[in-house]
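Handout, page 2. Input:
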Amino acid sequence: MSTHCQQANALPCQPGQVKTAHLHGHDHSHATSSRKRLIGALAVTALVFVGELIAAYISGSLSLAADAGHMAVDSSGLVIALLAAHLSLRPRDNAYTWGWARSEVIAAALQAGMLLAICLIVAYEAVERLWENQSLQPLPMLVMGVVGLLANLISLAILAGGRGANLNMRAAFLEVANDALGSVAVIVAALVALATGWGRADAVASLLIAALMAPRALHLLQRSTAILMEATPSELNLDELRQHMCCLPGVVNVHDLHVSSVSSGLVVLTAHVQVDGQVTAAERDLIVHDLSECAAHHFPVEIDHATFQLETARHAGHEHLEH
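Output:
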């Protein structure tokens, strides 16, 4: 059973003094721009992956192989991200009423899973190598580490302008940024091996690369899982939103309130709103308008699409009896 609304502690929304309702269309130019950036980053990353793989084989470096593995995940992740950016441009239809917007979230979850798998493999191999001082050829390892770092910086420059567009682009940017740190670890390990002959520096660098990847992969997995599970956005306090809505004239109670994300850039809301039985049709229209504006502009999360079912106490009571 839902309870009646309590007065909000925060400043209530003012009816009739709100911005004009915003349109719910979504500009595809962001997806097109994201796709171009992803293609550029993919070309650079794929070339460096091949080079690092060859250099890892020649030098016997695990850290370089780990960085190549990270590059492989970057490349496959960028392919997934590119596919997701392409799918997000597909129009909505009766079968997919939100279009393919959620494909970028699924892509981010897949990237996180691949990163975690690479972390476990590299960490296991690095621990084994710590027990024995491996012979290395640090010079090709150093050269390829520098090349990898430069390539990562180029990819970061390509992706930087679009990293705030959606979760998919943010994931791609963070993957390359972390890989740049991995390249730094390879360079340091190569320099240590050149200066001292201590081959275990390579295993230490490998563990560092795995440690850099794991927290980011877990965070990305948590973010994407929350969207797929239709969790309320973490920035939004649902009780506060309900209280604000209840402060509007004519609103008696709000129940079955749900706020979730279709994708990282598309937040939707549904709610059953109990109104005073004496409100007129015109007043009901005003209530819907004010509820929409309250949800869209009064909170840190912009709610792009809101659907309200207005009902009287009699209908609300009937619903509770059914449930």
